[in-house]
Design a protein that fits this description.
Layout: H1 8-18, E1 22-26, H2 27-38, E2 46-51, H3 58-66, E3 70-73, H4 76-85, E4 92-95, H5 101-108, E5 113-116, H6 119-128, E6 133-139, E7 161-162, H7 166-175, E8 179-184, H8 194-208, E9 216-218, H9 236-251, E10 260-263, H10 267-270, E11 274-286, E12 289-294, H11 303-307, E13 313-316, E14 325-331, E15 340-348, E16 355-358, E17 379-383, E18 389-393
Parallel strand pairs: 1-17, 2-3, 2-10, 3-4, 4-5, 5-6, 6-7, 6-8, 8-9, 9-10, 12-14
Antiparallel strand pairs: 1-11, 11-12, 11-16, 13-16, 14-15, 17-18
Length: about 400
C-alpha cells in the first residue's frame, strides 16, 4: 500500500469500472482525522461540528456521524442531506448567511438552531420566530487564510456582526424576546499555525463575556492540512495546550461553568482522505511549455483555478517506470485558458494513457464541482476499512444534464 491507498492494478480496475475522472476516499484516514479532532481537548464540554460544505457525500457523513461528531449546515440543501444521512435536529447547526425568511423557517420548523450574522437578519429572525432560540455569528475583527477569498473574518469580509454592535444586538434580543443560546465565528481557512486560531478565540471570548449564560461558544474551524510536501502539519498538541489554557482562564470569570465549547473543522477531517484520479489523453509542446492534457478540468476540481491552490501530483504509470523526469504543466479539458491543475511541476516522465493522482482532494473537491461545458461530474468511491472498494456516488450520465428541463 502506498500514499494513493491502492495498488496500481486496483486503481486501473476502478477506473475501468467507474470511469475517469474518479474521486477515491479512504475510510481509515477519515476516521483517524475525526478522532484527532474529537480528542483535541480533554474538556467533557467540548464538541466537534463538521463543516459539511467541505464534502457532503451522504456516505461520508454517515461515517463522520458514527464518530460522535455533529454537523454544521450552510443551506437548507445541506440540512436535507444531513438528515438523510441520519443526523438528528439537535446535532445540526444552521449557520445562515444572507438567507431568506423561508430558509430560516425551514430550519426552525425542524427544530434546528439558526445562527444569524447581521443585525437585519437578527431582526428578520425575531419577526418570524419571536421568543425562539437563536445564535449569533460575530466578526472578531481579525481573520486569516491561505487566500483572500477564504478569509471569513476581519474588516474586509461580509461575514458576522462586528463587536461594536453588541448593544444593538442586545436591544433586538430584548425586543423580540429571543433566547441567545450561543455565539460563533469563523476566521478563515487553512491554519497551520495554532497562534492565529488562539488569537481569534480570545477575541470571541471577549465578546462572550458580554453575554453571560450562553449554552455554547463555537470557536470556528479553519484547521489546515499540508498541501505541499515541505509543509509541516498543524501541531495539535500545541494547539490543545494553548486552547485549554485560554478556555480555563475564561471560565474562571464566566457564570456558566458548563458552557460547551465547539470547533467546526471541515477541511481537516476530509481533505487527506480523498484523491482525485484522472487520465492523460494528450501531450504537446507549445512554445517551450510541455502541456499534459487530462480529463481533470476545473469542473471536477476548481480549487487551483479559484484559489491558486497547490495539490501534490502522483503519476501512475501504465507501462514500465523509468527514472526520467521533466517539467510539465498539467491542464484539464475545459475550454478556458485558466484550466490548469499544476503549473511547471517536475514530475516523472508522463505518457498518454497514464493516470494522474491529485492528492488531498477530499475537501472542496466534488462539493465545488459543476457541469460547466456540460461536462459530467465523476463518481465517488470509498475504500472501506476491510480494504474493499464501494461506490458511494455514481457518475453523471448525459440524461442528468437535461433532467430539470
Amino acid at each position: 500500500m502506498n500514499d494513493i491507498f491502492t495498488s496500481n492494478e486496483e486503481l486501473i480496475k476502478l477506473i475501468e469500472e467507474y470511469g475517469s475522472p474518479l474521486y477515491v476516499y479512504d475510510e481509515n484516514i477519515l476516521r483517524q482525522r475525526c478522532k484527532e479532532m474529537r480528542n483535541l481537548l480533554p474538556n467533557k464540554n467540548f464538541r466537534i461540528s463538521y463543516s459539511s460544505k467541505a464534502n457532503s457525500n451522504i456516505e461520508l457523513l454517515k461515517i463522520i456521524m458514527s464518530e460522535d461528531i455533529d454537523v454544521d449546515a450552510m443551506s437548507p440543501g445541506e440540512i436535507f442531506i444531513q438528515q438523510k444521512a441520519g443526523f438528528t435536529s439537535e446535532r445540526i447547526f444552521y449557520i445562515g448567511n444572507n438567507v431568506s425568511a423561508n430558509e430560516m423557517m425551514y430550519a426552525v420548523d425542524k427544530d434546528i438552531l439558526v445562527s444569524v450574522d447581521s443585525l437585519s437578519q437578527l431582526k428578520l429572525f425575531g419577526e418570524i420566530n419571536r421568543g425562539g432560540q437563536v445564535a449569533i455569528r460575530f466578526n472578531p475583527g481579525v481573520g486569516a487564510g491561505h487566500h483572500e477569498k477564504v478569509v471569513t473574518a476581519g474588516k474586509k469580509t461580509k461575514f458576522g456582526i462586528q463587536k461594536d454592535y453588541i448593544n444593538q444586538v442586545k436591544e433586538l434580543i430584548k425586543k423580540y424576546d429571543l433566547k441567545l443560546v450561543g455565539i460563533n465565528q469563523h476566521l478563515g481557512s487553512l491554519f497551520l499555525d495554532e497562534d492565529q486560531y488562539i488569537e481569534g478565540v480570545k477575541k470571541l471570548l471577549d465578546i462572550a463575556r458580554e453575554f453571560q449564560g450562553l449554552k455554547f461558544i463555537d470557536m470556528g474551524g479553519g484547521f489546515g492540512v499540508p498541501y505541499k510536501k515541505d509543509e509541516k502539519r498543524l501541531d495539535l498538541s500545541k494547539l490543545s495546550k494553548k486552547l485549554e489554557e485560554t478556555l480555563n482562564e475564561f471560565l474562571e470569570k464566566y457564570d456558566n461553568k458548563e458552557v460547551i465549547f465547539k470547533a467546526e473543522p471541515g477541511r481537516y477531517i476530509v481533505a487527506e482522505s480523498g484523491i482525485l484520479f484522472g487520465t492523460v489523453y494528450s501531450i504537446k509542446d507549445n512554445y517551450g511549455v510541455t502541456y499534459v492534457g487530462t480529463d481533470l478540468g476545473f469542473n471536477v476540481l476548481v480549487r487551483p483555478v479559484m484559489y491558486d491552490s497547490h495539490h501534490e501530483i502522483r503519476v501512475i504509470k501504465k507501462c514500465q517506470v523509468d527514472n526520467e523526469k521533466e517539467k510539465v504543466t498539467i491542464v484539464g479539458n475545459v475550454c478556458e485558458s485558466g484550466d490548469v491543475i499544476a503549473k511547471d511541476r517536475e514530475l516523472p516522465k508522463i505518457d498518454e494513457g497514464d493516470i494522474i493522482g491529485v492528492m488531498n482532494a477530499g475537501a472542496y473537491g466534488f462539493s465545488m464541482s459543476s457541469n460547466y461545458n456540460c461536462r459530467l461530474r465523476p463518481a465517488e468511491v470509498l475504500r472501506c476499512l476491510n480494504g474493499e472498494f464501494r461506490l458511494i456516488r455514481r457518475a453523471d450520465i448525459y440524461e442528468d444534464l437535461v433532467r430539470n428541463f
